[in-house]
Amino acid sequence: MDAYALEKPAKVPRVIIDKSLSEIYSSFPSQFPFHSPTMEKGDDDCLYLRYLPFQLFPPYVPSWSDYLIRARQHIHAGLAHPEGSVRSKYAFAKTEFNFSVNFYRKFLDPAVEELA
Question: Are 92 and 12 a contacting pair, CB within 8 Å?
Fold first, then answer.
């Protein structure tokens, strides 16, 4: 029920982390999985899990770079959606995608490019 209440006011789809847990995450001794860049504080002051965490991809895709290329195609198509509220969600996904590409550039295939 708390998760539903946390995500109800969100304008973009994402996994929101309860603020009461933020102290636990900030004191976790490791960089992964719960520190930046896996977890981020949004413009609305909500902590959330990033869309494309490092090396997390489904088993049907051969590599993380291949997964990002697929994600890029999907986001690019979504940005052309005629409904503004849908486009704004894809604009957020574009920002998340570009962050991952820039932050992890040295680990990616050169074919993975930012979305313009």
Answer: yes
Residue 87 one-letter amino acid? R
**Interval 61-79: pLDDT, tens:** 999 999 999 999 999 999 9
91-116 per-position pLDDT tens digit: 999 999 999 999 999 999 999 999 99
Amino acid, single-letter form, for residue 66: D
Q: How far apart (Å, rounded) are the C-alpha atoms in residues 53 and 46?
A: 18
C-alpha 20/C-alpha 22 separation (Å) is: 6
Burial 96-116, CB ≥16 within 10 A → b, else e: bbbbbbeebeeebeeebeebe
